[in-house]
Task: structure prediction
Amino acid sequence: MSRSFDAVVVGGGSNGLVAAITLARRGSKVLLAEASCELGGILREIEFAPGYRAAPLSDAGYLSPRVVRATGLGALAEEIPANAPIVALGEGEPLQLHRDIARTARVLKRLSPKDAEHWPAFAQQVEKFTGFLVRLYRGPPPRSDADSFGELLSLANLGLKFRGLGKTDMIELMHALPNSAADWLDDWFESAALKGVLAALAVTDVAQGPMSGGTAFTFLHRHVGAKPGVFGERLRLRAGPMALTAALAERARAVGVVIETNAAVERVVVRDDRVAGVRLASGEEITCRSVISSLDPTRSLFELLDPVHLEVEFMTAVRNIRYRGVTTQVLLALDGLPTAPVSLSSGLIVAPSIRYVEQAYDAVKYGRCSQDPVIELRFPSVTQANLAPRGKHVAVMHIQYTPYGVATESVVERAIALIEPHLPGFSDRILHCVILSPQELEARFGLREGAISQGEMMLDQLFFMRPVAGWSRYAMPVRGFYLCGAGTHPGGGIIGMSGWLAAKAVVSAS
Result:
């Protein structure tokens, strides 16, 4: 006899888990089906050498208090430690952007009295603008063709949130959102080192350079939920990112969600133009009335569904979604820590100027890897000792720009050489090196073209245009089929919010 559920959630990352928990807490019988042998999605740790583990995609993002309440996670947020500073490596002394705004301003004074003076106001403006984005991300994007009272009220509330910024900040926000990070940062600062590291953060995991329009927005999105004055990092758990997955899985089981790993959903069964169930790779068919997929939009709509159920215009829009992964993750097993002028609990970034970052991006335009890439280096084992054998360590190197489908070995060698002058002895400490190019990230984590955010986070693929215009509110053209991954609003880096909003859409349609 076929098993029966009210809903099947596809994928065991944070969005899938949050969607499953939300539905189960509303009384639905839910199956969560994960294709791999363990849960976690992009937060998954992998053992890349005997005794050495790391989560290569470990910047979890922003965990909203609303998601915490909706899932009953309770005190998890209290386990988030204070963020370590970001350190810019370039010519001369390393530049440290501390958690404390005043302390960072004192550091900047050695580079530029003007930048030191502007830093507190810049940090305050970023906090205001990201606070506005937080309010936008709490609900589904408003429909541009709203015609019901509820939808018109949603648009009106959006206008009130915008007015709440005040006249000056309203103008500044409208100036910033479509602007390039380069122009926006030039308005604030003069130091090449400071602008370089901030520009690098603006284009992280984006196939754009800091002189591209809209990258001021990507900087702001990257810092939604960050503490005031803290840049480059949001959620970092003492026990690592898998602690969040473990907590969500525990909550899911506690509210009755059936979780199955090694359970790949092969096809969504459609009868009479609505979802009737799913067929697993094992051949088992499971009946259900709703399927909520956390996979990327292209996989969800063209692999899980038979395209015969979709209109040509809609399929064309989905095919035109840009993914364009451009980052390579390198996992390094070390026999010890290198000599360092700063604490290695910090994130280290090589991006000496805006010009350097833009020139690194130039190679991507012609389908090549940058030979002088932007590099971010972290040593997670400094704070999470169980990642490596006693006395050993793990380093995770994030290298940008490396386009999908291009060999990256020589770029990795170059990146290690670029780090060596700043951390003497670094290369000699390396015991094992595993390279996760965009195509490797696609194979291991199911990320199309290695794109972590399931679709490039640029202004033409956001809000009511994510995943495609006209279909931004989680329900897809086939009745009972929903998307809940990072390819939907509000996008990557906002933990579980898409899952929560998609589950609410399922409940509303019931």
User: Anything to note?
Assistant: The domain at 7-41+240-321+453-509 is CATH 3.50.50.60 (FAD/NAD(P)-binding domain). Confidence is low (pLDDT under 50) at residues 77-82. The first helix runs from residue 14 to 25. The chain has three domains: 7-41+240-321+453-509, 101-222, 327-445.
